[in-house]
Structure formats: C-alpha cells, structure tokens
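hiii so my PI (J.) wants the whole complex modelled not just the main chain, which honestly fair. so below is everything: four entries, each one labled with what it is. i double checked the lines twice but i was tired so who knows lol
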Amino acid sequence: MLGYFGPEGTFTHQALLKLEPNAAAKPYPSVPLALAAARAGEVEASVVPIENSVEGGVSATLDYLAASEPPLHIIREIVIEVSFDLAVRPGTTLGDVRRVITHPHAAAQVRGWLAANLPNAELIERGSTAAAAEEVANPDSTFDAAVCAPVAREMYGLEALAHNINDNDGAVTRFVLVARADSGTSARPTRTGHDKTTFVAYMRADHSGALLEILQQLAVRGVNLCRIESRPTKTTLGSYCFSIDAEGHLDDARVAGALQGLKRICADVVFLGSYPRADEIVPNIPHWASEGSYAASKTWLDSLG
Amino acid sequence: MLGYFGPEGTFTHQALLKLEPNAAAKPYPSVPLALAAARAGEVEASVVPIENSVEGGVSATLDYLAASEPPLHIIREIVIEVSFDLAVRPGTTLGDVRRVITHPHAAAQVRGWLAANLPNAELIERGSTAAAAEEVANPDSTFDAAVCAPVAREMYGLEALAHNINDNDGAVTRFVLVARADSGTSARPTRTGHDKTTFVAYMRADHSGALLEILQQLAVRGVNLCRIESRPTKTTLGSYCFSIDAEGHLDDARVAGALQGLKRICADVVFLGSYPRADEIVPNIPHWASEGSYAASKTWLDSLG
Amino acid sequence: MLGYFGPEGTFTHQALLKLEPNAAAKPYPSVPLALAAARAGEVEASVVPIENSVEGGVSATLDYLAASEPPLHIIREIVIEVSFDLAVRPGTTLGDVRRVITHPHAAAQVRGWLAANLPNAELIERGSTAAAAEEVANPDSTFDAAVCAPVAREMYGLEALAHNINDNDGAVTRFVLVARADSGTSARPTRTGHDKTTFVAYMRADHSGALLEILQQLAVRGVNLCRIESRPTKTTLGSYCFSIDAEGHLDDARVAGALQGLKRICADVVFLGSYPRADEIVPNIPHWASEGSYAASKTWLDSLG
Amino acid sequence: MLGYFGPEGTFTHQALLKLEPNAAAKPYPSVPLALAAARAGEVEASVVPIENSVEGGVSATLDYLAASEPPLHIIREIVIEVSFDLAVRPGTTLGDVRRVITHPHAAAQVRGWLAANLPNAELIERGSTAAAAEEVANPDSTFDAAVCAPVAREMYGLEALAHNINDNDGAVTRFVLVARADSGTSARPTRTGHDKTTFVAYMRADHSGALLEILQQLAVRGVNLCRIESRPTKTTLGSYCFSIDAEGHLDDARVAGALQGLKRICADVVFLGSYPRADEIVPNIPHWASEGSYAASKTWLDSLG
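here's the output for the full assembly
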C-alpha cells in the first residue's frame, strides 16, 4: 500500500500511477499527513510533490521530510508535466464564471490567463486541485469553475472551457517516493551512476559565511548541486537551513566525503536518501573526483603509513 | 494613498498602520495586485509581506517584485509579531467546530494546535486570514471558525475560543513598503549606517558553482547576508535565481563593489532597494571593509597612477 | 646611463645590451648596489635578474626592490636563454681541472654535469659568472676553470672545454629594467593589452588563511597569476610576504580593483610596476573581467543611484 | 652515523650536536651530497638547513629532498639562533680588512653591517661559513676576514673583530634531520599533538587558480599552514610546485584527508614526513576539525549505509 497527497485525480496521484501502476494507493488530504503515514508504517511509502518549475520547492514536503523521527528517505523520483484545464459543470459558459476555485500552487501558475480571460472572477483557494474539481462537480456549489488537471476534470464529470491555461508552457512538477529509512534493504536504491542525494544542512547559529563554507565542502570534493533552497528553521527571522540535492550517491566516495565534511561544520545534517535521477543523466565528474581517483589517493596515503 | 495586501484586518494592514498611521490606505486582494498598483502609479507605494519566520519567503512577493517594469524599490521594512486567534461567531463552542477556514500560511503555523485540539475538523484555505474572518462572520456560513489576527476577529465581531494558537511562539512576519524606483528622491532612503540592500541575482545557464561564486563576490568585499532564498526562474527544474538581503546600503563602497561584481558574473542582477533595517542593528563590518578602508585604498591606487 | 649587475660579460649585461643596445652602461658588483644606484638617481634605471627557470626567484632582487624609499618600478622585462661554458685558459685540458669557480646560481644549474665529468674537482663560488671568468683568465689564478656565459669566456680570452653544460636544457633567466617611480611619465609603460603587474603583499601578523584570502581577491576579479613566491619578512620564522606577478596593467579595471582589495586586507601592498610582457602573450580574460564588463557594471550601478 | 652539511663548525654542525650530542657525525660539502648520503644509506640520517628567518627557504634542501628515489622523510627539526662574528687572524685590525669571505646566505644577513663598517671591502662567497673561516686561518690566504659562526671562529683559531654583526637581531635557522622513508619504524615519529607535516604539491600544467585550489583543500579540513614556498619545476618560467609545512600529523584525520584531496587534484604530491614541532606549540584546531569530530562524522555516515 502506497500513500499519496490526494484526493484521487491530483498530479500526485498521476505520479504514483506512473511510478507504481499496480500498487494499492491511499490518498491523504495533505503532504504532512501523507508523510506521517509513511513514518507510522501505515503505508510502505508515500508520494509527495517536492519541487515545481514555476513555484519552486514545496514547503510542506521540504519541512516535514526532515522534521521528525523515524527518519524518512527518498527512494525514487519522477517528473510530471503540469497542465491545467478550466473545468466547469456541463453547460457553464465563460461568461457565467464568477467564482473560480483551485490550489494555491495552481493559482500561481494560471494567474496571467485568469487576468486576461476572467478579469472580474473571484479566485478562491482549496487544499488540492482535485478537491476543487470535486467541489465544482456539486450542483449546489457556489463555485463556477475549477483549475485542475485533466484527469481530475474527467473523474468528476466536468467539461473544459479551456485546456493548458498555464502561463508557463512546459511547467513540470517533481514528485518523490518516500519510505522509512529502516524499511528494509529491498527498498534501498543502489548506485546506478546517475544518482541524486538529498539532505538538509542546518547552519550553526549566527555564523555569517556558513553557506559559503557549505558550498566549499561540496566544491572541493567535486560534488555538484542540482537544487538548493533555504528554509527557515522556525525560530527567528534570518535563521536558515538549506535543503539540497547533490549529484551522486552515498556510495560515491566524493559524496560520502562531502557529507562527512558537512556533518562536521554544520549544526546538523539530515540525510534524506540517494536514489536514481528520473532523467538518467550521468553527471560530468571532474577526473579528480572519480571513484578511481579516490581509490588511488587512499592507496597512496596507506603507502605512507 | 498606500496600497496593501488586504482586506482590512490582515497582518499586512496592521503593518501599514504601524508604518504610516495617517495614510489613506487601499486594500488589494493579492500581493501581485498590490504590487501592480504601485507599479501603475495607482498608489504611491504598497505594503506586502516578504518573509515569515515559520513559512519562509513569500513567493508571490519575491517573484513579482523583480518580475517586470517599471522597477520597484523597497523603501522601508517592518517586522510584526504574528499571533492567531481561533475566531467564532458568538455562542459557538469548541465542540461545535467542524470546518475551519484560514490562509495557507496561517494554516501552516497552527497545524499542531489544530491536530491536538480539533483533530476531526476540516481545514479549508482562503486568500487571507481577514477574508476567513469575514466569511465566518456571515451567519449563513458553512464554516464554524477562522484562524485570524485578533484585529480581524474584532473587526468582524467574532469571539476567540483560543488566543495565540501558533505552534511556534514568537513567530514574526516581515513586511516591506514598496514604491516605483522613479517615484522621486523624497522616497529614496538615505544611508543610516544600519541598512539592508535587497536584490535578485540570476545565474548564467548551466553553470554549476555559480552560487559559490556569487557568495565569494560578497565575501571578499566584507558584505554579509541577512537572507538568501532560491527561486525558480520558471523555465526548467533546477534553473534558479537567488533573492538576497545583504547588510549595508548602495552608498556603502563595499556594497556598491559587490553589486558591480555580481552584475559582471551573473546573467542579471535586479536591484530592489536599500533601506533602513527595522531592528536598527548596526552591522559588524570587518575593518578592511569599512568606508575608511575603501577610501584609503582608492587614494593609494590613485597615488600609483 | 643604465646600471646593471655586472661585471661586463654577465647574463645581466647581455640582457641590458638586448634591451638598450645603445645605452651607456655601468656595472655594479651586486643586485642591491645596482638597485641602490637607480634609487639614488646615479643611473636612470638598472637591469637585474628577477627569476630563473631552474633556481627560482632571485632573492636579492625580490627583497631589495620592495625594501626602501623612494619606490622603484619595473618598466620592462626580457628573458634570456642561459647556457654555460666550461671556460679555461688556453691549453688546459679536462684532466687538468682541479678547482672550478662560478656563481652559486650557475653552480646549481651545472651540478649534474660536473658530478659526471669532473667528479673530483672542487667547486668554489664567486659573486658573478663573469667575475669567475676574470679570475680564471689571470695566469696566476689557483682556479683552473670557470662556469660562465660564452660572452664572458670570449671577453676574457678563455677557451671552452665544453659548451652548454647546463643540466636543464632550455633554462632561461628573466631580467627587469627598474627605475624610480618618480622618474617621469616618459618612463611609465602604457597599457599594451599584454601586460604584467608586479607587487608584494604583506600579510597581517598571525593570520592563518591570509594567502587564501589574497588569492580570492585576485580570483573574484578574474586576475590570473604568472608568479607567486613567498619571502620571509625577516622577523620570525613563518612570517611571510608574497611577491606576485599578475596578468594585466594597473590601468585595467580588474587589476586596479584587485590591488585595492589587497590593499584593504593586507598589512601592506608595495606596487612594483605594470609593464609589457616579454612574450607578448595576450591573456585569456574571462568575459566578465573585461574592460567592457567593468564599464557596463559601473554604468548600471550609476543608474541605480 | 649521521651526515651533515659541513665542514665542522657550521651552524648545521651545531644543530646536529644539539639534536644528537653523542652521535658519530660525518660532514658533506653540500646539501645535495648530505642528502644523497642518507638516500644511499651511507649514513642513518642527515642534518640540513631548510629555512632561515632572513633568507627564506634553502633552495638546495627544498629541491633535493623531493627530487629522487628512494624517498626521504624529515623525522626531527630544530631551530638555532644564527649569529655571526667578523673573524680574522690574530693581529688583523678593522683597517686591514680588504677582502671578506663567507657563504652567500651569511653575506645576505650582514650586508648592512659591512656597508656601514667596511664600505670598501670586497665580499667573496664560499661554500660554507666554516670553509670561509678555514680559508682565513691559512696565513697565506688572500682573504683578511671571514663572516662565520663563533664556533667556527674558535675552531680555526681566529679572533673576532665584532660579534653578532647580523643586520636582523634574532635571526634563526631551522634544521631538519632526514632519513630514508624505509629506514625502519624506530625512526618514524609518532603523533605527539604538536606535529608538523611537510610535503611538496606539484600543480597540473597550465592550470591557473591551482594554488587557490590547493589552499582550499587544506582550509575545508581545518589544516593550517606553517610555511609555503613556491619552487620552479625547472622546466619553463612560471611552472611551479609548492613546498608546504602544515600543522598536524599524517595520523590526524584532517591531515590525512587534506593530503588525499591534494593527491587527487595535483599532478603529484611528495610526502616528506610528519614530525614533532621544535617549539612544541599545540595548534589551535577548529572544533569541527578535531579527531573527535572526524570520528563522529564517520560513525554518522556509517549509520546511513
């Protein structure tokens, strides 16, 4: 059984179906609840969105992944194209639309289209795009249209007044499959050569220049970044941690070295998994950061002893 | 006339009243619209939230501040303690509360309290906490409670079932007053010695290590960071720009030098203003980054010519 | 009148003849004296060796150039191939050679040849290779052979038992023409696009990591190094300054910026001149460190003011 | 049997006597020969000078230590105060002194005194200060005075016209005891907590910025430098390697990590020994570079696997 940020018909649901077409799936009404279910062992793993090409990192995922015990690890990722319909009950025309409902991330991605085509409509936010479609499907609803995925529109018997109303063509969202770190080696992704490692680095208090030092620990070992985002540590303004995706696998010597270096200089590092990249791109590693170079330098050091 | 992210009773409204108690004020239903009003000259300036100690940067503000022409500059900032009430129509008891409505950022800050005290209540999101209070004030509303500021609760005649239900004590939100860059020197904040400079640095495409280089341009000139956040450039996953607050004023030699250095190595830099820090903390500048040191090095260089 | 580290027939003399074939020339018995003559105005400028491809920097030149007032500037450089003869009085055979005399730098460059061909000969050092040749030319000398330049051998009527006895083929020495900084603009080399700038950076006391900071000041402005050598500051062991040649001219914005940055972070910087490279190689400057990029960033900054 | 850079009476001889008062000692006429004797196994170890507080690194030692096979390691160091006498045959007065003989390094340290007190005397260089004293002791010598150590003056029956004629008070020279790397573990210095590690780092050809990268490999592991000197690689001008003393022992995790990092990014690294500091100063290691921090980061990493 896999959990996901539901209800049925969300982009997260689509991501789950692509990752595991045959798995039993259970929706949760929010990202924290979907992650809590994995943590509690209610489900084997959960699918949640982590990053959107338009909106950026998904705060709830970034914060709740690292937040508590037992530790969770990302074991797979998938990238889905995000395209929105303006979905209405059959018979509704564009001229009828007064109140539009959708999820805040979706709202952010269609703001231009709505301003141009429905300048006077009111926009109300709901917990998911699928929940918005469900609301509009209710004949008594006070909402006239939902911004949602085509799959959610179909699921609730709605019609599309417009397809692909995103302001940015080619918007994508990245989803991750997350399991308990102690859920057994069968789930642990082995090194493929095109891997990604996710972790959160917490800076020591009031240490200006800490981010520079974090990046230097990675750079001197030839570890490149795919993503870096600051997140508040929820204490005072200006107190940050950094959520980072780096190229490579925990079993790569350069990644293991960098993580240890970060563990030493940071207040804490929370490891969130090494897993294959969805795009299967093999990283361009400098020759001096290759496994061979690390092995040779170890042999040399041992010869001095 | 000043614009703000309304309606009346939001924390943004409170921020505006503290900044300019006597100004005429006009609410806008979203951050982008409040910024657009300042850009269009409908208002002299607008107040918007930019950063929350729990939720992090306010995406809409970070993205729309830098997004289009004519340029906007931050001219003041203020930090407001954020405290939420659970507001109900008079007579409602905790046992009656089935459906709670609030803004997504507020929802994120009271999630623990709601889970502990109203585990079965449904949480629905609305565009602002004040709009949530307005909704609940309607006797026909299907919502039983709003999570909102005390000022909004009072404005709409609601009662508090609980005060200060935030999960994190001492949560604060930072607001900025934003005006057109060409709005006249009367609005331009002069150097006070306790200033902050906000800008966005866009990296050149596919240049790993670019963030490290950005930080080095700042570090070698003795410019410290107050805040750094990555934002997607809305093209592909992993394409980022960085929204940065640095210590100091455009008229400080070290800041001017750092901005020029960034302008050279980055694809672009969008300057968003130098303005006094709300906390009036005078930064600890290394002696070699002081105005005196910059002036002396210039004099020395000229003597070689 | 030009001074040089003599006597006649030294490689330094050759360098002077190539630089200024028609100038009147006055030899000085040591580098410090040749530099002191330029400082005192006894000569317009002096030629001294600064760097050898085998022995490294010439300590006396590095130390005395920066050491006292009034300041001296390098105004030209030249690179001379260094090739040594084993020079003897006519009639002497290899079997006769018991005592060989030469300058310490020359000795270091022919050590292998002497060990292989004259394993039992004693090697004595003298102040210059030309002085060694002069000594051997004296029929009463207790020395049998000199290691010296072909020109010195000829000047003193000696014969070569062997030519080009250097252990390293292609050894070269770099010489500089040095004048008082206040000797008039006629002597000041203008920017050619293939220039070099020499200076000495003194670290602040007991500041570990200072060299790293020096290099970062250069790197963030796109200034490459041609040469860097540590020199003791003559106080305690481990107290160093750095003698540096950087690519570019004082009139290049990136060089001017780097020098100012160094002046701020170092205990002192002594500028020793910008002058054309002997090899006329145009440096490969990153686009963001070009004059155009510096000018554009300045224009941009001014537009914000 | 220990070798040393002789003859008897040199400062190197004094260093040997302090290090090993009871050892049999054999002088060699040059640093390369003293090192070659240790390499060939003619002596158990040799004492040579490596660094002078006035003149800087001793080129011959720096170059020949790393130059060939089998490898040599430094196993001890000692620092000796350097003080020179002006030594003459009994009866000679200052007014009689026309020709002065000494070693080039000594010459450099008494230049000021000679210029002030014997402005017209000729200065001739000899292979060692002790050899200079021996020369002057010869009644037939054409030299009137030697600049040498008090011990050499006494050894050859000379009188001092002046004591401590150094231009820099408190000048010291550092000497090292050097043995074959394979000479048995009895000679291998164990970790004391106040150690120094010496090595040479060779840069890859034409890689500008290489020194910056070398220093960063050390800095990110919290390894401080005691000494860094560039040495030409004897191929072309501007091709350098770096001779480095770092704080700490090969058995310190931070040093082992830094050496491996350098081995990976450099063309080559030649390890020249870890040995106790003569001054017994315990280095100030950042907490994150301590043995405990390294061990903890390793334990943490293993827990993730």
